[in-house]
Write a structure and sequence with these properties.
The complex is a heterotrimer. Chain A contains 13 helices and two strands. By secondary structure, chain A is an all-alpha fold. Chain A has one domain. In chain A, strands 1-2 form a two-stranded antiparallel ribbon. Helix content of chain B is 32%, strand content 25%. In chain B, the strands form five sheets. Chain B has a six-stranded mixed β-sheet with strand order 6-9-10-3-11-12, sandwiched between helices. In chain B, strands 18-19-20-15-21-22 form a six-stranded mixed β-sheet, with helices on both faces. In chain B, a hairpin with a 2-residue loop joins strand 7 and strand 8. The longest helix of chain B has 16 residues. Chain B is globular, with a radius of gyration of 25 Å. Helix content of chain C is 71%, strand content 0%. Chain C is built from 14 helices and no strands. The radius of gyration of chain C is 23 Å and the shape is globular. Classes of the chains: A mainly alpha, B alpha/beta, C mainly alpha.
């Protein structure tokens, strides 16, 4: 127990929580924007994988991590649009289209990786670049907080910033409001001239774009290479985090952080000879438990409302 | 016609893809600054006409003139731009947004990148004040009462510049107090130069509120009058009437013991409001009890309570002496109940399945059609073949998908299935709505035959022809209550029935009490 | 008209397959220096020897099981994607039975497979239960359960069944009594293919010839209608996923007992996802599952042979699969042509529907 506490109360631990939270947070925000428009996007896993590879390839070719990031973002947006095309235009069930996209991404990235790097597992033969880490002046001098908060990859800061950007976008801008209206009552949106499919298409494109930051972070920040299936289910976890966070940016952030905490914990606990696999399972179990607690609470609230209505329905005396 | 019309719809004809003529050469015009009532029975074509005006439907023929120039309302968006607003029966609001946000949805004022919410709130306040429609711009719509939601809808239309406001049965969901409030608000709107089209079934409301009234029946206009010049009874006579009479031959009923007994039943609707307000009645073996009434007066909820589809809020329902309050749907069916649902595509069939599979839906566990493990395809095939022939279902074979059939034939599939179990109690909810004459006649005759074979039939229908032709006795539902009971339906005239259906007349509790034969 | 619709759907499937194969062929032509060899290996490699054809058959076995599992879950309109985890856990648990229990020859694999199946049933059943009881999306929680199954399974193997004398992270050897025998000489096609065939027959009868299957289909197609007809839809929804999980778990167990000497998976094998492809290709009909599984297995073995004999990698299959699923599942693909066809039929068949003016939905 003492060892356990020693692990949690270190600055490295705090630092690593933020580090592992970053990609999940991006993906959760990506899940949020499409979910709010009424489309569940389970292709995030595949989109992150594709963009992780895109980032590595273009940063190698252009000798610029930033151009690599740019290309990854373009690629992610296009993939989101592709999903939108399949779902909205060809009317493929969005879950099946996303499963197809994920399978395509998993095999396709390996195919491309082999073509270009000559290896099916890892991109180490490519001289890919990583995005810079940022030391925040002044903050890094503060004890405890400094080592936890400073010195992260630039995308980690952008992820944190994105929470607020997303909050602003979804609650304060016309487009954000339209997305919410479309997701909640498409008929109402339609009746005031908001194109439902158009709005959903935009939301899916945005979803792809945001997820691509997560993908780029995986291969150009979290580590400095691409390896096969490196997203390891983060796109799926993000869906759960978004659901658990009640489809709000702040809620999704907290849920992602919770997941990041357990993930970091599982990395650290391995030092304590707790079975690694058992520990690695914790985040997923925690996510399911969180999801169930959240939906059960919501359902309870609804039941209470029904009971209240039931009481009002006694015949009038 | 004098050319004082602001808006004029000329020769509007609308035929739905299933062949139903909803509007037949309809001419309709309104003057600026009036409140114009549009009345008619269910299915008379009022809503279709208004949907065409608001750009939700396209007419095959006819044109719309606004201040003398032709306009083409191809979408609601264009209709709004032409100054026409519509308040639907089902509110078009986003529950999690505030009143102000709902107001500006789609036409958001901006300040930089963000919505100028302050302006939205200010505008909402100003508009609310101008028309005396008290709403809180910051309240979330999901927490508002139905009455306030309606005000928001009206404001929403005004905010978008509506000068002609269509209200589709606005009082159907309101309490009497809310209705009163709405009327004074609408009068104020009129005073400020707006024009209102008011769709309603409630003639005293029409009398009270409207300047003129146009009556529709069977897709045609029956006349336009100044409300001051006509009585509710006059209107009712024009509204309610039988054009096509499908005669059903039947002998007098020989009612026997009680099958269905409903006591003080209370049911809620989807909004959690009391939709059925403590009704009691009984249906006996060998008779058809008709439940007449304009749609939306609690009939739907009544059927859901009797068939077990929704929880009974209060009161008791017994079938053959057994209480069904806590019974599962299957158990209720096993008591010998069958149910022709109002909405056949949602509750009546699985459209991707074959006729044969659909026929099996209520008897998949009957020993005639399934053994210990395997179903008996031969027996199922024979049954469906027999039903297809008996009910004259037009199809290539019983293996055809139900979704490919016409409406009338789909309904026959439903009816054939439900009647094939020798039911003790038949709940028939709008059994012939929207289907062709041949199928209608067939189904009605079948209902009478089953009555003669000693089934008890509870027939819910908004179609006057149907209730009057088929019923042995008759009750009328109005606003969730039974307002009339006629022991012998053949002695009721449609005019009289109309007065009860439209809430103009009301029997005494003693008279209504006649429908309970035994305590 | 039913036949027409069927014909149309088949046409759509064939076109989807043709388009995706065409894309793959073009890709091969573009990336390969030896396209002739590559194409030959890809298209005809599986037929060039008994051994290669045997590879196709042995690959079919797990695909059939997961394909059936996903089919039954999708038939109830439940998007449970947990077949992957169920398959893995089925193999893990049955490896315990195969290593630690001493049982007679025929009994041993039977017990092992049944227990593997039960494990799978639990793993797919939990998300179902969470959905019915608390409303948690079965899609999201089944995705989580795949990872839970994976790590939990590895934990069990590595801590309780690991052979310390083996070089890698693998279990002890499975007892010979538990193994499924090879049944075709010169190949590794094992007895599992017979179990698979039996399962197909059983599932076909289950879905189309029993009342439970009927209830499942009805609930999947229109749950409100099912409720109206008196079916307890919650029970149906759970049982469909439990059955699906059982089949997937048994499939994992059979794969292990048929082809492996020890439990040695260090990754999720991916057959659960392949099951989704098979189910879509087969349109959820158990009778078509073997065809779909054969097709997919043939593609994969062809691609494997191509990657061994040429410079094109076998992951090209991923492209084919992706395009294929999307197009087959796309209701809008060729919609206009279908609409024209249906409309022509409908107008021809349309009887005079009378002139009673009635409003629709007014």
């Amino acid at each position: 127990m003492k060892d356990f506490l020693q692990i949690i109360f270190t600055t490295q631990f705090g630092y690593s929580v933020l580090r592992v939270t970053t990609p999940i947070l991006f993906a959760a925000l990506a899940a949020l924007v499409s979910d709010r428009a009424g489309v569940i996007n389970i292709a995030l896993e595949g989109i992150m994988l594709i963009t992780a590879l895109t980032g590595v390839l273009f940063s190698t070719w252009f000798h610029s991590a930033w151009l690599g990031l740019l290309m990854a973002v373009i690629m992610g947006t296009l993939t989101g649009m592709l999903l939108g095309y399949f779902h909205l235009k060809l009317k493929t069930n969005v879950i099946l289209a996303a499963v197809a996209l994920n399978l395509l991404a998993s095999g396709g990235t390996i195919f491309v990786l082999y073509l270009i790097a000559g290896d099916k597992g890892i991109s180490s033969s490519l001289a890919s670049l990583t995005l810079p880490k940022i030391t925040i002046p002044l903050l890094d001098k503060i004890p405890v907080l400094g080592p936890i908060l400073s010195g992260h990859n630039v995308l980690t800061y952008f992820a944190l910033l994105s929470v607020f950007l997303m909050h602003y976008f979804i609650y304060k801008t016309p487009m954000g409001m339209r997305i919410r209206a479309v997701g909640e009552n498409p008929e109402a949106a339609d009746s005031v001239g908001i194109g439902v499919k158009k709005t959903q298409f935009i939301a899916l494109a945005m979803s792809g774009m945001i997820a691509s930051f997560g993908g780029a972070y995986m291969s150009m920040g979290y580590v400095s290479w691409f390896s096969r299936d490196m997203t390891a289910g983060r796109g799926f976890i993000a869906l759960a985090a978004e659901a658990m966070g009640g489809a709000t940016p702040i809620g999704s952030f907290l849920a992602s952080l919770l997941f990041g905490f357990f993930d970091a914990l599982s990395n650290s606990l391995q030092l304590l000879r707790v079975p690694a696999e058992f520990v690695q399972m914790i985040p997923y179990v925690a996510t399911v438990v969180g999801l169930v607690l959240y939906t059960a609470a919501k359902r309870n609230q609804y039941q209470r409302m029904l009971i209240k209505i039931g009481r009002q329905l006694e015949p009038e005396k | 016609m004098p050319d004082d019309a602001m808006l004029r719809m000329e020769k509007i004809t609308k035929v739905y893809p299933n062949g139903i003529v909803a509007n037949n050469e309809v001419d309709f015009s309104i003057r600026k600054g009036e409140i114009h009532a549009l009345v008619g029975e269910n299915g008379a074509g009022k809503s279709t006409l208004m949907r065409i005006l608001f750009g939700l439907e396209e007419s095959q023929k006819g044109r719309i003139l606004l201040n003398g120039t032709e306009i083409k309302n191809e979408s609601p968006h264009i209709a709004i731009a032409n100054g026409i607003g519509m308040v639907h029966q089902h509110f078009m609001l986003v529950p999690s947004l505030t009143v102000a946000e709902n107001m500006i949805l789609g036409v958001e004022p901006k300040k930089g990148l963000r919505i100028d919410l302050q302006k939205a709130i200010k505008d909402t306040r100003a508009l609310a004040e101008k028309y005396n429609l008290a709403v809180d711009p910051l309240a979330k719509v999901q927490f508002l009462s139905v009455g306030i939601k309606q005000k928001v809808e009206i404001l929403k239309a005004l905010y978008r510049g509506a000068e002609i406001l269509i209200l589709d049965e606005p009082t159907a969901v309101l309490t009497p107090q809310e209705t009163k409030e709405l009327f004074s608000e609408l009068k104020l709107l009129k005073k400020q130069g707006n024009t209102i089209i008011f769709i309603s079934h409630k003639l005293h409301e029409v009398k009270e509120l409207c300047d003129r009234v146009t009556i529709m029946r069977n897709g045609r206009i029956k006349g336009t009058f100044n409300t001051a010049d006509v009585t509710p009874t006059d209107i009712s006579r024009l509204m309610v009437g039988r054009d096509v009479i499908l005669e059903v031959e039947k002998d007098a009923a020989k009612p026997k013991e009680i099958v269905l007994s409903v006591t003080n039943l209370v049911m809620a609707n989807d909004l959690g409001q009391r939709a059925v307000k403590g009704v009691s009645f009984q249906v006996r073996k060998g008779e058809i009890l008709g439940i007449a009434g304009v749609e939306g007066n609690g009939q739907r909820e009544l059927v859901k309570g009797v068939t077990g589809l929704e929880r009974i809020a209060h009161g008791e329902v017994t079938i053959l002496g057994e209480s069904i309050n806590r019974k599962a749907i299957k158990e209720i069916r096993n008591l010998g109940t069958c149910h022709i649902p109002e909405d056949r595509m949602t509750y009546g069939v699985a459209k991707e399945m074959t006729i044969e599979q659909n026929v099996l839906a209520d008897k998949y566990d009957s020993q005639d059609y399934t053994g210990r493990i395997l179903t008996k395809p031969r027996a199922i095939r024979d049954l469906s073949q027999k039903l297809v022939e008996e009910y004259q279902i037009k199809c290539s074979s019983p293996l055809q998908e139900v979704g490919m059939l016409s409406g009338g034939n789909i309904q026959k599939v439903v009816v054939a299935r439900e009647f094939s179990t020798n039911p003790q109690l038949i709940i028939a909810d709008q059994p012939t709505r929207g289907i062709d004459v041949g199928s209608t006649e067939f189904i009605r005759n079948r209902l009478v035959e089953l009555r003669d074979e000693d089934s008890a039939v509870m027939l819910v229908s908004a179609d006057l022809n149907e209730v009057l032709e088929l019923s042995d006795s008759l009750i009328v539902m109005y606003e969730g209550e039974i307002t009339a009971f006629f022991e012998d339906a053949s002695k009721v005239s449609e005019e009289e029935l109309g007065l009860y259906m439209l809430g103009i007349k009301h029997q005494t509790p003693e008279e209504i009490g006649g429908i309970v034969y035994e305590k | 008209m039913k036949n027409r619709k069927l014909a149309f759907e088949s046409l759509r499937s064939v076109l989807a397959i043709a388009i995706s194969l065409a894309i793959a062929l073009v890709t091969i032509l573009l990336v390969s220096d030896m396209p002739g060899t590559a194409l030959k290996a890809f298209l005809f490699g599986p037929l060039d020897s008994m051994r290669h054809f045997g590879n196709v058959l042995e690959m079919m076995i797990p695909l059939i099981f997961t394909g059936l599992a996903v089919s039954i879950m999708f038939s109830a309109a439940q998007f449970n994607l947990g077949a992957e985890g169920a398959f893995f856990m089925g193999a893990v648990v049955s490896s315990f039975v195969a290593v630690q229990w001493t049982l007679p020859v025929v009994i041993h694999p039977i017990v092992s497979i049944l227990i593997g199946g039960l494990t799978g049933a639990v793993f797919c059943g939990i998300p179902a239960l969470l959905k019915v009881k608390w409303g948690a999306s079965e899609l999201v929680s089944s995705l989580m359960f795949n990872y839970i199954a994976f790590f939990f399974g590895l934990y069990l193997i590595n801590y309780f069944l690991r052979d310390p004398n083996a070089g890698a992270m693998v279990s002890f050897k499975l007892l010979a009594s538990a193994k499924l025998p090879y049944i075709i000489p010169k190949t590794r096609v094992h007895f599992g293919i017979i179990i698979a065939a039996l399962t197909i027959v059983v599932m076909y009868f289950f879905v189309y010839r029993t009342r439970w299957g009927y209830k499942t289909l009805l609930t999947g197609l229109n749950s409100q209608f099912a409720k109206y007809a008196g079916i307890k839809t919650a029970v149906v929804v759970i049982s469909a996923q439990v059955i699906g999980g059982f089949i997937a778990g048994a499939g994992g167990s059979i794969e292990l007992l048929g082809l492996y000497r020890r439990f040695s998976w260090q990754q999720l094998p991916g057959y659960g996802w392949s099951g989704v492809i098979v189910a879509i290709l087969a349109r959820r009909n158990p009778a078509y599952v073997p065809l779909a599984a054969f097709f997919l297995a043939y593609l994969r073995i062809g691609a494997d042979l191509m990657s061994r004999q040429s410079d094109v990698q076998n992951e090209i299959v991923a492209i084919i699969q992706g395009v294929m699923i999307v197009l087959i599942a796309a209701a809008g693909f060729l919609e206009k042509a279908q609409y024209r066809m249906v409309f022509r039929d409908a107008t021809r068949d349309l009887t005079n529907v009378g002139n009673t003016a009635r409003e629709v939905g007014g």
